[in-house]
Amino acid sequence: MVGRVMESLSQDPDVIVIGAGAAGLSAAKALRAAGLVTNVLEAANHVGGRCVTDTTTFSTPFDRGGSWMHSANINPLARQAEAVDARLHKTEWSLTAAHCFDRTLEGEDFADYSAYEDVIWNVASGVKEGTVDTTVDAALPFSPWKAPAKHLISTMDGADADMISLHDTAAYDWGDDSDWLVEGGYGAFVARMHADVPVKCGCPVTEIRHGGATPEVVTPEGTLSAEQVVVTVSTGVLGAERIRFEPSLPVDTLRAIDQLPNGLLNKVGIEFDPVWQEAVLGDRFDFHANSDQFVTLFFGFYGTGLATGFIGGRCADQLEQDGPGAATALCRDSLRSFFGSDIEKMILKTTETAWRSDPLTLGSYSYAKPGGAGARQMLATPVNDRLFFAGEATMPHSYSTVHGAWLSGQRVAQEILAVRSKGN
Ligand SMILES: Cc1cc2nc3c(=O)[nH]c(=O)nc-3n(C[C@H](O)[C@H](O)[C@H](O)COP(=O)(O)OP(=O)(O)OC[C@H]3O[C@@H](n4cnc5c(N)ncnc54)[C@H](O)[C@@H]3O)c2cc1C
Predict the structure, then answer these.
(1) What are the TM regions of this chain, as residue ranges (predicted)?
(2) What is the reported pLDDT for 424?
(3) List of domains in the chain
(4) Which atom of ligand 1 lies at the shortest distance from residue 406's CA?
């Protein structure tokens, strides 16, 4: 994983940024470019947060969090990757096979299952004006394939279709719907593009006192103050009150945090012997072990033998609670179902994530509860021009993504510069 040399803190910063994920790094870079002294405090011993590349487990880099540059035509990080001539993999991914309970789908069944996925995306991306918000599940039409196919939502949104707001889902901007990979990993790329941003790692913030003229931030290194403080931690961390706010946050901010829980997406990385070529870059396999357990497997990352199983929503939570190895076992079951038991001999190594148990994220990314579509805007509203919130959860059209987090950092930097220019 990408580490970062400990930097000493400025004792008199203009701005303190809490968290060195995509949002915090982006905000700090923009603020520093505008000439503001900016301290970035990060609790973990690495930068990147939920976008971090593991370079030690496999022979190929493995993004434990964000890996795809989604919506490349509207993704500013894709523009940056092009500008530095990073190698990009632009292959389109598509469903190759699906296994439902006790059989692999064939002929018409496979076609109907696949077609229902299109129904899901159509429903999830368009709502009639003036309609009352509901769950995505409630808006999906009946089909014998509805129950299994809608599990795919949980691997996109980190929560099941009956938990999430239709209006919030429909507000997401898919752009051209592309999913690019950047050679070397998305986390490594984001870290590289922000290598000039000093970060104090291993520095957890425990309290923010924002009642006075100059907010104070309490850390084990001491208490720091600055005119503005940017908070980029996940809504999981905010909701669990891992950081104490004094005075308490405004009711609207608290309501927004409650309406934007952190969902769960976990990944299982699987490295195959390169001689095994039965599934390649762009192939996707859906596996429904039973009505509750679902994994979708993507093969051939960067054109290598690296595959990733994606498990989301309640299923991911249950498997994470079941303990280490449970998610990997589901992936192994799926591989045996599709390719026969000899596939086991081709597996060189595996790893799995457990984002719910990570105390610095407490989940993967935010989803909105039904009725909570306006919460992202509410969370993004600054408190008294001193306390600012950024991070993926604050972005109504690009939440749950790395580029959304990065854009939120740019937004918050502009807001701070505007406030400061007003004051001068
Ligand atoms: C499994 C998974 C797959 C994903 N896939 C994709 C994908 O393919 N494409 C995509 O675009 N997005 C994807 N995402 C989402 C994307 O990774 C996130 O939306 C994005 O990285 C969030 O960035 P952020 O800056 O908002 O938050 P974070 O990355 O969470 O940054 C917040 C930082 O705050 C730190 N912190 C927490 N508490 C404290 C504290 N008390 N004091 C100081 N620091 C603290 C954390 O350690 C963290 O570094 C995925 C996420 C996961 C988990």
Answers:
(1) none
(2) 56
(3) 15-52+184-261+367-423 (3.50.50.60), 93-177+265-352 (3.90.660.10)
(4) 25
